[in-house]
């Protein structure tokens, strides 16, 4: 699902001068930033990045971004560890898994909450999560789909031992279900709409992230070593992202056309998919770092996520959630 995003030209020396002001807070040499390689996926929650990339909004902040698309979200952290990427957009459960294994990944910005964009789809004969018992369920292991499924099973008194797991990427779920070989699949948009829209009205959504608000959060993540070396570049990336989010809000029709091309849907379908996520506004981002039990907090949602991951054997110890994020960038941008 890697898409060819054009590599943009770097702003001239005037931008370098503009960046000097950031040096006091971000201790790196004041110079034009060459490039950041950012891994992401085709997911409507990443729309502000798509818009910023298409309109070259990062350039105004002295930055080139090589936005690399991955068909399998579990490969993004692997590419980060292998230094093939400087950073990436992950889900918070992926960050918890990484930190629990000693990988120094840190959230620098919350992006969006899934609000129905992640879902479990099934044939019409299956009306409840309890009906999953003994049936094949297709999903991508160690991904947001795996996590949503685990949460759904647990909340209905079941576990992974009660189903027949079938490993597949989120993008393969629609074709597998269309072939009749898979009765239940876990995926995200635009795949959810593809399954539900298959001929014959054979499938429907049984469970979605609407029933677990805040538990599936997309976040912008960097290794702490990259944060130490390139804070000005990270700040510029976030500024470009926020410009993209602002453009979506002020130019909804034009933005929908851009987003639709990435998602592979019509502009109207892109608008509908945007309703399945909530992109967090800058003034609200600090709430994710507050030490509360709310699911909008990394502490609140993190505890639920970590307990599930541990119960599923994906981690052995629950990490200190305060070590999973770095608040400096959000704090600076909100001043």
From TrEMBL:
<dbReference type="GO" id="GO:0042597">
    <property type="term" value="C:periplasmic space"/>
</dbReference>
<comment type="similarity">
    <text>Belongs to the bacterial solute-binding protein SsuA/TauA family.</text>
</comment>
<dbReference type="InterPro" id="IPR015168">
    <property type="entry name" value="SsuA/THI5"/>
</dbReference>
<feature type="domain" description="SsuA/THI5-like">
    <location>
        <begin position="47"/>
        <end position="255"/>
    </location>
</feature>
<keyword id="KW-0732">Signal</keyword>
<protein>
    <recommendedName>
        <fullName>SsuA/THI5-like domain-containing protein</fullName>
    </recommendedName>
</protein>
<dbReference type="Pfam" id="PF09084">
    <property type="entry name" value="NMT1"/>
</dbReference>
């Amino acid at each position: 699902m890697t898409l060819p995003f054009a590599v943009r030209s770097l702003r001239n020396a005037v931008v370098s001068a503009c960046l000097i002001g950031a040096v006091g807070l971000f201790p790196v040499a004041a110079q034009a930033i060459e490039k950041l390689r950012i891994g992401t996926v085709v997911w409507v929650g990443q729309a502000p990045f798509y818009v910023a990339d298409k309109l070259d909004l990062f350039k105004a902040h002295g930055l080139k971004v090589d936005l690399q698309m991955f068909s399998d979200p579990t490969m993004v952290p692997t590419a980060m560890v292998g230094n093939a990427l400087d950073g990436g957009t992950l889900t918070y459960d992926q960050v918890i898994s990484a930190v629990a294994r000693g990988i120094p990944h840190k959230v620098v910005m919350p992006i969006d909450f899934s609000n129905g964009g992640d879902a479990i789809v099934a044939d019409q004969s299956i009306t409840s999560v309890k009906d999953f018992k003994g049936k094949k369920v297709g999903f991508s292991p160690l991904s947001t789909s795996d996590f949503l499924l685990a949460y759904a099973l647990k909340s209905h008194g079941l576990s992974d031992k009660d189903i027949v797991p079938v490993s597949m990427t989120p993008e393969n779920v629609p074709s597998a279900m269309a072939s009749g070989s898979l009765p239940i699949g876990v995926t995200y948009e635009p795949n959810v709409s593809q399954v539900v829209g298959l001929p014959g009205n054979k499938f429907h959504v049984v469970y979605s992230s609407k029933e677990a608000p805040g538990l599936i959060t997309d976040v912008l993540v960097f290794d702490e070593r990259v944060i130490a070396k390139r804070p000005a570049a990270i700040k510029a990336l976030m500024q470009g992202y926020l410009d993209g989010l602002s453009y979506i809000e002020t130019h909804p029709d034009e933005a929908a056309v851009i987003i639709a091309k990435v998602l592979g849907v019509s502009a109207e379908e892109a608008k509908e998919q945007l309703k399945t996520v909530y992109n967090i506004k800058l003034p609200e981002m600090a709430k994710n770092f507050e030490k509360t039990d709310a699911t909008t907090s990394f502490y609140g949602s993190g505890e639920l996520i970590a307990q599930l991951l541990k119960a599923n054997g994906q981690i052995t110890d629950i990490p200190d959630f305060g070590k999973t994020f770095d608040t400096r960038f959000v704090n600076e941008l909100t001043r």
